[in-house]
Structure formats: structure tokens, C-alpha cells
Amino acid sequence: MAMLRDKKLLLLGILGVHRLHGYQLNQLLDSPANAIRVGKGNAYQLLAKLETLGYVASHVERDGRRPPRQIYRLTATGRDEFKRLLAERLADHEAADLPDAVSLNFLSVLEPAEARRLVAARLARV
């Protein structure tokens, strides 16, 4: 369950910063900098679920003669869910093979006082 939470957090965080079509999103997800792996099929499945929940919206866009592309963006509800997941993940500690790079990557989107509070809560759990 924690892995699904991290994948949702990663997708929502990326879409909170960028409006992307699927190919661009998959390029970001395939980056070696990501601590977790989200396969192409899994990403589209998760995007569809996030869209059903109202966290992500999409529309078709055409650029010149290129084929139409589905563009994804974060909704206001998605931004709230992202902040909730981020706070939950930052304040949590799970022993893992890899350090928690997903939530720490988005630490800068929080107010400094909130970030300090959540990291202190996490430290207390360690």
C-alpha cells in the first residue's frame, strides 16, 4: 500500500509542476533519479484512477500536424490530495531498502514551518 501511495504522490507532484502528455510524463518517470519505478502501463492505469477521483484532469490537444495528445494537469482537489499525501509521507518513517526520495523531492512546496514540523515528526518516529 505504501508503494501505491508513493506512486500517487509522485504523479500528483509532477503534475502539480507540469502540464504533460503521457510520453513526457513517462520520460520523467523513467528517469534514474526516481527512487521508485512506475511502468508505462501502471502510470496510465494510475492516471485514469486519479482522473476518476477528480485529482487529475485531461484534455486532447493537437500541435500542428502531430497526432492529438492527451494532456494531464492537476486539479484543485488533486493539489489538496497531493498536500495530504505529502504531509502523511513526510511525517511517516518506514524502514526500506531505498530512502524516501519521493516525498523529500517535494519538500520545497510546503511552507517552511510545515516542512520542519513534518520532518520533526518523522525524526521522532525513527
Radius of gyration: 15 Å
Widest beta sheet: strand line-up = 1-3-2
- Mean model confidence by pLDDT: 81
Task: Tell me what portion of residues adopts beta-strand conformation.
Answer: 5-15%
Regions with little confidence, pLDDT below 50 for 5+ residues: none
**Strand count:** 3
Order of helices and strands: HEHHEEHHH
Task: Furnish the topology, listing elements before pairings.
Layout: H1 2-17, E1 20-21, H2 22-29, H3 40-52, E2 56-61, E3 69-74, H4 76-91, H5 101-105, H6 112-125
Helix pairs in contact: 1-4, 4-6
Describe this protein's structure.
- The protein has helices spanning 2-17, 22-29, 40-52, 76-91, 101-105, 112-125, and strands at residues 20-21, 56-61, 69-74.
- The protein has 6 helices and 3 strands.
- α1 crosses α4 (76-91).
- The two termini are 20 Å apart.
- Helices cover 57% and strands 11% of the residues.
Keywords:
single chain, 126 residues, mainly alpha, 3-stranded antiparallel β-sheet
What's a quick, concise take on this entry?
This protein is mainly alpha-helical and 126 residues long.
